[in-house]
Specification:
Layout: H1 28-36, H2 48-56, E1 70-74, H3 93-99, E2 103-107, H4 115-119, E3 130-133, E4 138-144, E5 154-160, E6 172-176, E7 187-194, E8 197-203, E9 211-221, E10 224-228, E11 236-239, H5 254-262, E12 265-272, E13 275-282, H6 290-300, H7 311-321, E14 331-333, H8 352-360, E15 366-369, H9 371-385, E16 389-399, E17 406-411, E18 425-437, E19 448-452, E20 469-470, H10 471-475, H11 485-493, E21 495-501, E22 507-513, E23 519-524, E24 531-533, H12 535-538, H13 545-555, E25 572-577, E26 589-597, E27 603-614, E28 620-633, E29 637-644, H14 646-649, E30 658-667, E31 673-681, E32 688-692, E33 701-708, E34 715-724, E35 728-738, E36 743-750, E37 756-765, E38 772-780, E39 791-794
Helix pairs in contact: 6-8
Length: about 800
């Protein structure tokens, strides 16, 4: 009889070995191959030799009809008698079924409403895959070709992630059956048996690598072994677990877990320290295809999946990959004001559209982003992967370029700024992220919130990324602790030092300001849309002994450790303030310059003022006006109103309508130097969103969007951007021109797909006016119910 050896194929798949596919972890290639071949045969059509052998000798080359393809290896057992020709007889299909244990089907119990998804807090993901969190058990059913006999049969699960899975690196996991689960390890136990079906309880350690795993089941007994073929529908996604006390990202407050993991919308703050605005952002971490997109971003980093079990590594990878200068990451930054080749950063109102485009275009950076867009995407990715994350805004945020831990301003002999030397800057606001984790790589006490910044400002170890930096280390000036703590410290607590050029070309420190950086550090409050001030987490109260000690500690490690001069007596102070919510776009801007003379004698002050249009990053664009005024200051306050007319700034504004007033001067009698800089912005109007009628899942509804142009000029080529999770996918509306001071409205129709309270976000953008947006809460009812409709509109530029 013709005898063929049993075929054993690699469980890794034929075409995915050793390379990254276009989607995730090498699964796509197997999927395509399986579509092209009859699943019940598990044999390629082109293998004519094997088909011929089946016809000639079906007992040697059997054809199986299992629900799941199974690889079979026969084992010669003791006591078998040879046939008449000296060879052992080969069993047929029926005999194989009786002696081998083969997998017929696998049920991962992956329903969104089932115990696996709800107990793992993954029921919100719009995916049909099994999504679980590490350090927690899950259940699954396996149907076999015959009843499982624990005394003679062996069975184990085989999980693989990454392009080249290795047991020693934790990317190839072999899960044995055990009599009793012990926890904190990969293990499985049979908890129920029904004829040919067994129910397994499977446990993973709290240190498992996160990602997408291929699953196969392998069986063995004295007659041979069998292995199920990989089916992409049975891939398992494993995430970080903030509900597990043994996980590094564990967070003990359920309210905070609901906010920082499960909330798919949020508020991002912008403006200036005196004029704080807010806009709603759709994080959308549970939207369809977003989990796959987030893992795609990780894959594009080129880092080894073996390091993806450590959240410190993961957040640093995401910090680098959300920007694009050196690794073709998600977003291309643009602060030029020209966004004609892409989307203006102010148009975006959520992360889903950005991540989907990046994934769809196989890793081509999306145009364009600025700090709040980078931070919004980081929040989406990290929450999606299971790391508690929030979006944070720092007002008056310093950008230290020379590791001096000071913000330096250089003036010439006439106290005029020397623009080419003033490379340090103070951004009106800067947005980054805090993420929550223990820090076993740092001394005790440095776990908790960690700052992570994806905006490409300075390189860290050769890559544009920043963090994670412990907020505790930042607060105490421990800038020698990793990662990038010095840079974050300078952003929130550096002193601003003024230097004047001498006749010989050297510079002398003439003044310092100690309370102007790191103001009103803000994030969305837990469980509400209110603003939460978290400045105290980043630094001690300004001017306190603890705060000064932290500054001195930090600066002793900086490049200008000896730059501080002893404080000098001052009897004249200078302050710039604004009343109320501040000036509005299209109106004159009015501020107040206050000089206070605390001495008993008159003081003469020569004041120089300069107002400039600024990028929100603190970079100078253009000077609008300069003035020089001589003031006699009696022993009391002297308030000088200062105004900037609309005609002076109307043609020079950029994205954020940001301006800076620089005031400097000298007291004639004492030669005391006065200097300050005051950033302000021109407030933009809100979009008014009015739902029309009742909102019901699956039924068409309408909203009316209203807007009034605040400018005495025509807005050209106006674009509206509309989106809402569970309401409608992002869409762009090319509206056209809007006349001077004109009021317009438009109606949009859509069909809600998810019930509950949903947020509809709308933004307006054009060359003449940006940062115009609005949000409306829409309560969507299930189709079978008919309660009264409720809605509320939240102002997009709330002031605090």
């Amino acid at each position: 009889m013709l005898r063929m050896p049993a075929e054993r194929r690699s469980a890794r798949g034929r075409s995915a070995v050793g390379r990254f596919p276009s989607v995730t972890f090498g699964f796509g290639e197997d999927t395509e191959a399986e579509k092209e071949e009859p699943k019940e045969n598990n044999v390629k059509k082109g293998n004519a030799c094997k088909e011929w052998l089946r016809k000639v000798c079906p007992c040697c080359c059997p054809k199986h009809d299992d629900g799941i393809d199974t690889e079979v290896t026969l084992v010669d057992g003791p006591g078998k008698e040879d046939g008449g020709n000296g060879e052992k007889p080969v069993p047929g299909d029926k005999e194989l079924d009786e002696v081998l244990l083969k997998v017929k089907s696998i049920d991962l119990l992956k329903s969104k409403s089932g115990a696996n998804r709800t107990e793992h807090h993954t029921h919100l993901y719009q995916s049909d895959n099994l999504i679980i969190r590490r350090g927690q058990s899950f259940e699954m059913w396996i149907t076999l070709s015959r009843p499982f006999n624990p005394s003679s049969d062996e069975l184990h699960l085989d999980l693989k992630t990454g392009p080249l899975a290795v047991v020693a690196k934790g990317t190839h996991v072999i899960i044995p059956l055990v009599a009793k689960l012990e926890g904190d390890r990969w293990e499985a136990a049979v908890v129920k048996q029904e004829d040919k079906k067994i129910k397994l309880l499977v446990n993973s350690p709290a240190t498992a690598v996160i990602g997408r795993y291929q699953l196969t089941v392998e069986t063995n007994n004295q007659n041979g072994s069998a292995s199920s073929t990989h089916d992409p529908a049975n891939d398992i996604y494993i995430l970080f677990n903030p509900w597990c006390q043994d996980d590094i990202v564990y967070m003990d407050s359920e309210d905070e877990r609901q906010e920082y993991i499960l909330n798919d919308t949020g508020r991002i703050y912008y403006g200036t320290k005196d004029q704080i605005g807010a806009r709603t952002w759709n994080y959308g971490q549970f939207s369809d295809r977003i989990l796959a997109a987030c893992l795609f971003v990780m894959e594009k980093s080129g880092t080894s999946p073996s390091g993806w079990g450590d959240p410190v590594n993961v957040v640093r990878i995401i910090s680098a990959m959300v920007n694009s200068p050196d690794d073709q990451g998600v977003l291309e930054g643009n602060w030029s004001g020209d966004y004609s080749n892409g989307t203006s950063p102010t148009v975006w109102s959520g992360s889903v559209e950005i991540l989907e485009e990046y994934h769809k275009k196989n890793g081509t950076p999306v145009k364009y982003g600025q700090c709040w867009v980078f931070a919004g995407v980081v929040t989406t990715v990290l929450r999606c992967l299971g790391i508690p994350t929030r979006t944070v805004t720092n007002f008056s945020s310093a950008h230290d370029t020379d590791v001096s831990l000071t913000t330096d301003v250089y003036l010439d002999e006439n106290l005029e700024p020397i623009e080419n030397l003033n490379v340090d800057s103070i951004w009106n606001f800067h947005v980054w992220n805090d993420c929550w984790m223990a820090r076993k790589d740092l001394p005790p006490g440095h776990g908790g919130w960690q700052a992570v910044d994806a905006t490409p400002q300075e390189t860290s170890q050769g890559t544009y990324c920043c963090g994670p930096a412990s907020l505790a280390a930042v607060r105490y000036g421990q800038v020698y602790l990793k990662r990038d703590t010095a840079f974050v410290f300078a952003e929130v607590n550096s002193d601003k030092i003024y230097w004047q050029k001498n006749a010989d070309g050297t510079f002398t420190q003439i003044y310092s300001e100690k309370k102007i950086v790191g103001i009103s550090i803000s994030t969305k409050a837990v469980g509400s849309n209110e603003r939460s001030d978290i400045t105290h987490l980043y630094k001690h109260p300004e001017g306190s002994n603890e705060e000064r000690i932290a500054v001195e500690t930090a600066c002793s490690f900086g490049s200008k450790a000896k730059a501080y001069s002893s404080p000098t007596a001052q009897d004249v102070s200078l302050e710039v303030t604004l009343d109320g919510e501040g000036p509005k776009m299209g109106k004159d801007a009015e501020l107040m310059i206050t000089l206070k003379n605390s001495s008993s004698q008159q003081r003469s002050v020569s004041l120089h003022s300069q107002v400039s249009v600024m990028y929100y990053t603190g970079v100078h664009k253009a000077t609008v006006r300069t003035d020089t005024t001589d003031i006699e200051v009696l022993p009391n306050e002297v308030c000088n109103p200062w105004a900037l007319e609309y005609k002076d700034y109307k043609d020079k504004l950029i994205d954020q309508a940001a301006l800076m007033l620089t005031v400097s001067g000298r007291v004639t009698e004492t030669q005391q130097i006065l200097a300050t800089q005051f950033s302000f912005r021109l407030r933009t109007p809100d979009l008014i969103i009015k739902p029309l009628g009742k909102a019901v899942v699956g039924e068409k509804m309408s909203v009316e969007i209203s807007f009034t142009n605040p400018l005495p000029q025509v807005l050209k080529a106006v674009i509206f951007h509309v989106e809402g999770l569970g309401l409608l996918t992002a869409r762009m509306i090319n509206y056209g021109d809007i006349g001077s001071h004109a009021s317009v409205s438009l109606t949009e129709q859509f069909i809600p797909t998810l019930s509950g309270t949903r947020k509809l976000l709308v933004s307006l953008d054009c060359k003449q006016l940006t940062q115009v947006h609005g949000v409306s809460d829409i309560t969507v009812e299930e189709k079978s119910n008919a309660p009264l409709y409720r809605s509320s509109t939240i102002a997009s530029t709330d002031m605090y």
